[in-house]
C-alpha cells in the first residue's frame, strides 16, 4: 500500500515535468521529420567517403581567386541602348527643363546595370547626382531623406549641423530642402525599382522643376509604371529592356568562364537556351559551371567543358526557355543552391538578414558568420581566412555582386540582386534559419521557434510581439529600436545583436542591452550614442564591440573585465576622432583588433610641473599615460591597431611607445596605422627604430613625415602602404620601388587649417629637392596595382618608361595640380579616378584629353572646396 501511494504521488508531482518532456520529444521528432523531408526535397546526400577511408575533398579546398582591383568585365547587350540614350540626355527642350527616362522589363534583364552605366557616362555633366532604391513597401520619407543627404554632402561637405538636422526633418521640410538644393542646379537622379503608379506619383510630386537641366531615370518591372513616368511624347522617353540573343548570351557566359571555347558548342548552346536570354540566369549558371571546373585540373578545364555543360544542363530540367517567369528563375537558383556545400548554403541564406538593396560591408558579414558559429577552422586556417574563402566563393559563383574594392584589392562591400535576395529570403524562412519582419518580401509567419530575427522596418513590430522570442540567438534591427524595448526580457539566450544605423538608442536602452549576459557580438555603429554604461561588464562573453562613428569618447573602467574581447572597433577615420586608450583597455589581452584609439603624450614641461605640484593633474596624467604605454605591449594577440597620437612626447614617452610597437610587431601584428598630430613621433622615434615591423601586411603613417623610414625596404610582406604626402620626393619613390610585394601605395595629407601652412612649406621644399617634379622610376614596383595621391597641392608627376608595369588604377584628389605626364608609359593602366575642386578643373580636363588618345577610362568627381579644408 505504501509503495502504491508513493508511486501515485510521484506521478502526480512529476506530471507537468513529464508533459513538458513529452512535448519537447514530440517537437524534436517533428523537426527531425521536417529535416528528412527537406533533405529528400533538395537532394541532400550524406558526405561521401573515398575508397581509402578519407573524406571526399572539400569543394572550398580549391578556393576561387579573390576579385581583382578593377573588374574588367564589359557590358554585354546594352551597348546600342547606351549609345542611343546618351543622345536623349543631351537633347534640350525649350518648354521644360526636367525630363524623365523609364527603363522597364522583367527582373534580371539588366535594367539597373543599364541605368547606372548611363548615369556614369553622363554624370560629369550634372552639378548634382543622386541615387535611391525604392522597395515594394514604399516609404517617401526615407527616399527624400536619402536624396537630401546626398545633395547636402555634394554641396556642403563637412557641414555637420544640417546633416544632423536632416534626420529630424518631416516630409514637408524635406521637400522644401530638396527644392532649395536643386532650384538653380542641373541634376541627375536615378530611382531604381519602382513597384506602383501610386509610388511614382508621390515621388514625382516631390521633385522640383530645375531652372537649368534636370534628368530623372526610373527603372521598373512594370510597363504601367513606366508609362506613368513618361506621359509627354517627344520629351520623356520609354525604353524596354530586351533579352540577350544567342551570341551576346555566350559572350556574357565567357566573361565568367574565360577559358570556355571561343565559339559555343552544342552543349553550351543547349545550356544557354534554358537561361532564356536572361543575364541574371546566364551569370549564375556560368558561376555554377565555373565552380565545377575549379575542382578539376587545368588540362580537364581546357578540354572537357562539354561534360560540365551537359551535367548542369541535366540538372536544370526545363529552365526558362523562351518564356521568362519567376518560377523558371527559381528552378535555376535551386540548382545553384543545391550544388553548394552545406556550410556555404548556410552562409548564403544568412544574407537574407540584411534588407533588400542594402550595400553590406564584407568585414561585417564575415564577423557575423563567425559570431553565429557558421565558420570553423579548416586545415589549420583561422576562421577569418575560412570566412574570406567562403565569401570569395559566393562572389565567384555570381550569387553576390561586388560593390566597391578596398585599396588592398579585396572586396569592400557587396550587394545582392533583387531576385536572388527574394529567393534566399523565402529559402531561409523555409529552413527556419532567418525570420524577417518588415522586409520587402512578405514571408509566412514562422511555424517553428524563431532562432534568428531580422526587424527591417518598425511597421512589422506587431508580428514580433506575437512570436515566442526565448529561443532567438541573433537579432538585427535596421530601423527604430524603441518598439523592441518592451520585448528585451524575452530574448533570454541572445548572442548576436546588430543595431547598426538604428535610431532611438538612448543611454537607458543601452543599459537594458547590457542585461543580455550571453552576448558575444554587439554592434552600435552609427547609432548616435555618446557613452557606454559601466554595466557593459555584465557581458562577460563579449568578443566583438563595434562603436564606430558614434560619439563615445571613453569607455568605463569596468571594461577591463571583458577578457574575451577580440575586436574593439571604435572612432571615426573620416573625422580623425577616436576613443581614449586607457589602462582598462590594455587589460583585454585577447584583443586582435584595436581600431581607433587616442594616446596623449606628456611633454618634459609637464614632467617638470609635476615635480613641484604633488597631486597635480599633470602628474596624474603622466602616470596614467606611462602606465598605458607600458601595458600596451601586453596585447600580444593584436593583429590590427590604429593609433592617434596627440600632445607632445618627451624622450621617455617616445621610448615606451616605440618599445610597445616593436614588441607587438614581433608577435601577431599585421596592420599598423599611426596618425601623428604634431607629436614628432614619426620623424624622431619610429624612423630610427632598430626592430622594424617585418611581418606587416599594411602600414599607414599619417601626419608630418619628412622622410621615409630607411627600414621600410625590409618589410618583405608589406602589400599596402600609406604615407604622408610630406614625405613625397623622387628619392622616396626610389626607396619604395624596392618593396617587393607592394600592391597599393598612397600618399595623402589631411590639410587642416592649422597644419596647412606647415604642410605646404614642406611640399614646396620637396618639389625643389626633386628639381621641380616627382619621377616614378623605370625599375621596381613589380606588383604595384594602385597608386593614390590625395592632397591640396599635387606636384608634377612623371612616369618613366617601364615604371609600375602592373599598375591598373591611379587615384588623384587635389585642389591644384601642376600636371601628370607619362601615362602612355603604363601599359596595364585601366582607370584614372580624379577628385578635383569645383574651382579647379583645368588639370582634370588635360588628363581627360590625354586619356582619350590612349583609350583610358577617366572618372572625374568634383567636390566642394570645404571638404579639403575640413
Automatic annotation (TrEMBL):
Provide the Disease resistance R13L4/SHOC-2-like LRR domain boundaries: 471-850
The protein's name: NB-ARC domain-containing protein
Q: What are the BP-aspect GO terms?
A: defense response to bacterium; innate immune response-activating signaling pathway; plant-type hypersensitive response
Ranges for the NB-ARC domain?
Answer: 79-257
Membrane among the record's keywords?
Answer: no
Q: Which InterPro entries match?
A: Apaf_helical, Disease_R_plants, LRR_dom_sf, LRR_R13L4/SHOC2-like, NB-ARC, P-loop_NTPase, WH-like_DNA-bd_sf, WHD_DRP
Q: In this protein, which residues make up the domain named Disease resistance protein winged helix?
A: 353-422
Amino acid at each position: 500500500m505504501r509503495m502504491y501511494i508513493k508511486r501515485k504521488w510521484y506521478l502526480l508531482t512529476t506530471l507537468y515535468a513529464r508533459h513538458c518532456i513529452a512535448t519537447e520529444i514530440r517537437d524534436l521528432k517533428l523537426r527531425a521529420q521536417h529535416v528528412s523531408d527537406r533533405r529528400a526535397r533538395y537532394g541532400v546526400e550524406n558526405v561521401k567517403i573515398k575508397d581509402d577511408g578519407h573524406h571526399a575533398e572539400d569543394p572550398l579546398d580549391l578556393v576561387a581567386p579573390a576579385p581583382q582591383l578593377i573588374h574588367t568585365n564589359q557590358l554585354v547587350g546594352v551597348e546600342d541602348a547606351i549609345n542611343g540614350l546618351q543622345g536623349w540626355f543631351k537633347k534640350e527642350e525649350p518648354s521644360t527643363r526636367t525630363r524623365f527616362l523609364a527603363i522597364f522589363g522583367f527582373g534580371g534583364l539588366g535594367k539597373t546595370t543599364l541605368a547606372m552605366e548611363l548615369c556614369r557616362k553622363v554624370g560629369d555633366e550634372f552639378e548634382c547626382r543622386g541615387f535611391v532604391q525604392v522597395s515594394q513597401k514604399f516609404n517617401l520619407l526615407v527616399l527624400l531623406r536619402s536624396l537630401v543627404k546626398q545633395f547636402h554632402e555634394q554641396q556642403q561637405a563637412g557641414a555637420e549641423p544640417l546633416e544632423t538636422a536632416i534626420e529630424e526633418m518631416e516630409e514637408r521640410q524635406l521637400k522644401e530642402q530638396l527644392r532649395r538644393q536643386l532650384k538653380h542646379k542641373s541634376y541627375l537622379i536615378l530611382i531604381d525599382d519602382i513597384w506602383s503608379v501610386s509610388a511614382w506619383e508621390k515621388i514625382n510630386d516631390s521633385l522640383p522643376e530645375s531652372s537649368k537641366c534636370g534628368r530623372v531615370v526610373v527603372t521598373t518591372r512594370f510597363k504601367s509604371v513606366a508609362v506613368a513616368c513618361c506621359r509627354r511624347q517627344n520629351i520623356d522617353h520609354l525604353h524596354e529592356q530586351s533579352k540577350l540573343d544567342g551570341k551576346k548570351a555566350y559572350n556574357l557566359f565567357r566573361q565568367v568562364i574565360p577559358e570556355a571555347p571561343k565559339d559555343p558548342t552544342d552543349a553550351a548552346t543547349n545550356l544557354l537556351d534554358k537561361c532564356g536570354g536572361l543575364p541574371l540566369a546566364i551569370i549564375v549558371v556560368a558561376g555554377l559551371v565555373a565552380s565545377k571546373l575549379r575542382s578539376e585540373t587545368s588540362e580537364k578545364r581546357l578540354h572537357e567543358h562539354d561534360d560540365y555543360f551537359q551535367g548542369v544542363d541535366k540538372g536544370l530540367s526545363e529552365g526558362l526557355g523562351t518564356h521568362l517567369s519567376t518560377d523558371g528563375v527559381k528552378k535555376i537558383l535551386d540548382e545553384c543552391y543545391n550544388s553548394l556545400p552545406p556550410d556555404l548554403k548556410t552562409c548564403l541564406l544568412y544574407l537574407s538578414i540584411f534588407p533588400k538593396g542594402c550595400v553590406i560591408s564584407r568585414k561585417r558579414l564575415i564577423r557575423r558568420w563567425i559570431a553565429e558559429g557558421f565558420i570553423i577552422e579548416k586545415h589549420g586556417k583561422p576562421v577569418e581566412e575560412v570566412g574570406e574563402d567562403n565569401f570569395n566563393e559566393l562572389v565567384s559563383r555570381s550569387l553576390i555582386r561586388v560593390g566597391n574594392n578596398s585599396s588592398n584589392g579585396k572586396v569592400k562591400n557587396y550587394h545582392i540582386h533583387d531576385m536572388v535576395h527574394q529567393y534566399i529570403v523565402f529559402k531561409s524562412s523555409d529552413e527556419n534559419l532567418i525570420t524577417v519582419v518588415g522586409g520587402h518580401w512578405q514571408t509566412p509567419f514562422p511555424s517553428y521557434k524563431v532562432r534568428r530575427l531580422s526587424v527591417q522596418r518598425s511597421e512589422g513590430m506587431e508580428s514580433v510581439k506575437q512570436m515566442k522570442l526565448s529561443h532567438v540567438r541573433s537579432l538585427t534591427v535596421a530601423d527604430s529600436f524603441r518598439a523592441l524595448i518592451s520585448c528585451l526580457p524575452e530574448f533570454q539566450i541572445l548572442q548576436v545583436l546588430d543595431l547598426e544605423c538604428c535610431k532611438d538608442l538612448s543611454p537607458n536602452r543601452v543599459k537594458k542591452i547590457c542585461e543580455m549576459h550571453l552576448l558575444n557580438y554587439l554592434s552600435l555603429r552609427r547609432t548616435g550614442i555618446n557613452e557606454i554604461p559601466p554595466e557593459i561588464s555584465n557581458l562577460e562573453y563579449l568578443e566583438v564591440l563595434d562603436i564606430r562613428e558614434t560619439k563615445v569618447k571613453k569607455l568605463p573602467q569596468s571594461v577591463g573585465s571583458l577578457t574575451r574581447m577580440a575586436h574593439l572597433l571604435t572612432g571615426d577615420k573620416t573625422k580623425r576622432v577616436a576613443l581614449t586608450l586607457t589602462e582598462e583597455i590594455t587589460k583585454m589581452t585577447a584583443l586582435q583588433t584595436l581600431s581607433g584609439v587616442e594616446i596623449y603624450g606628456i611633454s618634459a614641461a609637464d614632467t617638470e610641473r609635476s615635480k613641484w605640484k604633488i597631486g597635480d593633474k599633470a602628474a596624474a596624467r603622466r602616470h596614467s599615460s606611462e602606465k598605458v604605454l607600458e601595458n600596451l605591449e601586453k596585447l600580444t594577440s593584436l593583429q590590427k591597431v590604429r593609433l592617434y597620437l596627440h600632445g607632445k612626447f618627451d624622450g621617455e614617452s617616445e621610448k615606451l611607445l616605440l618599445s610597445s610597437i616593436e614588441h607587438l610587431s614581433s608577435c601577431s601584428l599585421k596592420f599598423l596605422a599611426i596618425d601623428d598630430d604634431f607629436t614628432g613621433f614619426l620623424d624622431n622615434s619610429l624612423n630610427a627604430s632598430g626592430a622594424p615591423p617585418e611581418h606587416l601586411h599594411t602600414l599607414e603613417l599619417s601626419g608630418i613625415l619628412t622622410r621615409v623610414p630607411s627600414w621600410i625596404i625590409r618589410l618583405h610582406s608589406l602589400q599596402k602602404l600609406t604615407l604622408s604626402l610630406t614625405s613625397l620626393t623622387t628619392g622616396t619613390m626610389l626607396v619604395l620601388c624596392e618593396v617587393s610585394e607592394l600592391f597599393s601605395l598612397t600618399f595623402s595629407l589631411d590639410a587642416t587649417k592649422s597644419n596647412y601652412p606647415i604642410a605646404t612649406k614642406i611640399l614646396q621644399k620637396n618639389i625643389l629637392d626633386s628639381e621641380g617634379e616627382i619621377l616614378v622610376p623605370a625599375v621596381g614596383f613589380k606588383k604595384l596595382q594602385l597608386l593614390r595621391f590625395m592632397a591640396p597641392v599635387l606636384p608634377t608627376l612623371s612616369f618613366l618608361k617601364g615604371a609600375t608595369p602592373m599598375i591598373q588604377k591611379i587615384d588623384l584628389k587635389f585642389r591644384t595640380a601642376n600636371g601628370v605626364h607619362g601615362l602612355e608609359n603604363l601599359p596595364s593602366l585601366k582607370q584614372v579616378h580624379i577628385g578635383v575642386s569645383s574651382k579647379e578643373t583645368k588639370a582634370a580636363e588635360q588628363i581627360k584629353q590625354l586619356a582619350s588618345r590612349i583609350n583610358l577610362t577617366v572618372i572625374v568627381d568634383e567636390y566642394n572646396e570645404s571638404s579639403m579644408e575640413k
